[in-house]
Amino acid sequence: QVQLVESGGGLVQAGGSLRLSCRASGNIFSVKDMRWYRQAVGNGRELVATITRGGTTHYEDYVKGRFRISRDNAVNTVYLQMNSLKPEDTAVYYCNADVFTMVAGFGPQEQDYWGQGTQVTISS
């Protein structure tokens, strides 16, 4: 089994910063792409940023220049540094990862995993 556990959410004023972390643990062979999504009340889940195992990053336009995604492959952890936060950034933030696990008789098998989410609230 694989678990993704997020931390770092909270309440900050507009213009402030937060840093989210998400660590993958369990029967892991390797972790491929890692992503952050968010879901505000009444909205669908939307992609925020992606990082490949090699460190290539992609940001959605609404966070470009304000958020920075990074990862530490040694500890299977992805981070999201969020700066210049706005009230519209308020959401539950979820981490997502493509994880390879070793399955007896089949070798590495890829599966998509999600964290439980962490609340980020920005006050105006």
Describe, in short, the structure shown:
With 124 residues, the protein is mainly β. The protein is built from no helices and 11 strands. Strands 2, 4, 5, 6, 9, 10 and 11 form a 7-stranded mixed β-sheet that branches. A 4-stranded antiparallel β-sheet has the order 1-3-8-7, with no helix packed on it.
Task: Give a description of the structure.
The protein is built from no helices and eleven strands. With 124 residues, it is an all-beta fold. The relative contact order is 0.32.
Give the oligomeric state of the chains in this entry, treating copies of one chain as homo and distinct chains as hetero: single chain
User: Structural class of the helix and strand makeup?
Assistant: mainly beta
Uncertain runs with pLDDT below 50, 5 residues or more? none
Describe the sheet with the most strands. Answer: 7 strands, mixed
Radius of gyration: 15 Å
Helix content: under 10%
Count of DSSP-assigned helices: 0
SSE pattern, N- to C-terminal: EEEEEEEEEEE
Which outline best applies?
Answer: elongated
- By DSSP, the count of extended strands is 11
The percent range for strand residues is over 45%
Termini separation? 41 Å
The average pLDDT is: 97
